[in-house]
Amino acid sequence: LLGAAKALESLLELEEPAANHNGGQLLFGLDGCLYLFIGDGGKAGDPFGKFGNAQNKSTLLGKVLRIDVNGKSPDGKPYRIPPDNPFVSDPKALPEVYAYGVRNMWRCAVDRGDPVTHKGRGRIFCGDVGQNRFEEVDIIVKGGNYGWRAKEGFECYDIKLCYNSSLDDILPIFAYGHSVGKSVTGGYVYRGCESPNLNGLYIFGDFMSGRLMALQEDERENKWKKQDICIGSTKACAFPGLISSYNKFIISFAEDEAGELYFMATSYPSAYAPHGSIYKFVDPARRAPPGKCKHKPIPVKTKSKRIPFAPLASKSLGFHFIVWHNCIQSQRLTFEHSLKPKYYATTAPRVIHELGKTGAPTPKLLQVPNLVDMLMSHLIPQKTPREGERRRSTSLIIFSPLVSALTFNV
pLDDT tens across 28-64, in order? Predict the structure, then answer.
């Protein structure tokens, strides 16, 4: 953004005792407050002090913080402390602390709630990466202690701290061992329209194993039950399953305005990987009726000046999409989109050519990071075949640019 550097303001600075676990996600809750999910400071086992950073409420490391960015505090900080923060009256705690006892929360999300009953609205789900044995999923609550380093998952990590009667920690809603995966990536509760079978499921994954999972709440038993998300077949529950050439390291999930879910996977296990893909969740077993899921985007009001994108003359921007059927790459279509100079909308796609059948080489998705947001906002409508025409695939879906289709059973 041009001129953005002039408008930048430093809200909060943290010490960095080690090279890892020093930052975290930022998101706004439904209350309008900014939540910051800060790692424990790094190294291994939170070795800082008698209790570690995560259990020490006088440090910001290993915490969930909550601040009000719409104003300044009396002591000159560029934010205010919400008066209902849980430790504002505790002289031994920093007032920014909302929850503590976390290790390295990787991806958190606010549940928008059921569109009819509003059940679940405002809950904050997080994946917290474990140390040696377990990965966990937590629901963040005010004043909650999530156990680290006393506990890892449901088990003890530091025996002395674990059996301390004053621990009073909140257990995760789900934890899994390192035979399943070694680095949880938090996701979202599905609140979309296109795939009704997914309604209310918390969908997440594992960065290292590429496994996709879902949790379903059982209110009667007061627990969450895990389901594996599989690609077209229950025999291939680790993404990419049978397709070994696909990017599998699940680094992040995303939700669009309509509540539909996406995830990003990289070509090797690093946040700095130069190549990756964005995938959309689609359930071919049950699709919403045509026309039911029309969504009117929220208008964007901005005072900033738009910067036109003008591609070079005679240049076109190509996108590759995969049409999946029964866990096998059945067809590959190549579309060409021409971007008109000084306009943001794409022209209608036209098919250039069709390549191969089963076994065709996997295409590489175009890497245009600075255009992703713009391109993701333009959906390609599903084309209904005329009478007498054969559908290309039983699982042909609506595609977004830079998104490969992913079908699955739950």
Answer: 999 999 999 999 999 999 999 999 999 999 999 999 9
**CA nearest neighbour of 52 among 168, 172, 158, 169:** 158
Confidence of residue 124 (pLDDT cuts 50, 70, 90): very high
Per-residue pLDDT band for 307 (boundaries 50, 70, 90) equals confident
Other CB atoms within a 10 A radius of the CB of residue 219 amount to: 7
Q: Which one, of 257, 283, 286, 287, lies nearest residue 112 by Cα? A: 257
Q: Which residue has the tokens 């022209």?
A: 347
Instruction: In whole angstroms, give the CA distance from residue 365 to residue 266.
Output: 11
Q: Give the start-to-end residue ranges of the domains of the chain.
A: 14-282, 317-380+391-407
pLDDT tens-digit series, residues 95-108: 999 999 999 999 99
pLDDT of 370 above 80: no
Topology, domain 14-282: Neuraminidase (2.120.10)
- DSSP code at position 381: P
For residue 114, pLDDT over 50 is answered with: yes
* Residue linked to tokens 């140390």: 131
Q: Which of 185, 188, 102 is nearest to 148 (CA)?
A: 102
- Specify the length of the chain in residues: 410
- Residue 271 to residue 198: CA distance in whole angstroms: 28
Q: State the Cα–Cα distance between residues 171 and 147, nearest whole angstrom.
A: 7
Closest to 230 (Cα-Cα) out of 283, 288, 269:
283
The amino acid present at 168, given as its one-letter code, is D
CB atoms within 10 A of CB 6: 6
- Residue 373 phi/psi, 5-degree rounding, is -60, -40
Phi then psi for residue 185, to 5 deg, are: -120, 110
Q: pLDDT value at position 355? A: 32
pLDDT of amino acid 7: 67
Cα gap 397→385, rounded to integer Å: 13
- pLDDT (tens digit per residue) in 277-292: 898 988 877 888 878 8
Structure tokens at 285: 């077993």
Q: State which H helix or E strand residue 373 sits in.
A: helix 372-376
Complete DSSP assignment for 95-152: TTEEEE--S-EEEEEE----TTT-TTTT-EEEEE--SSSEEEEEEE-TT-B--TTTEE
CA distance 292 to 95: 46
Helix (H) or strand (E) holding 375: helix 372-376
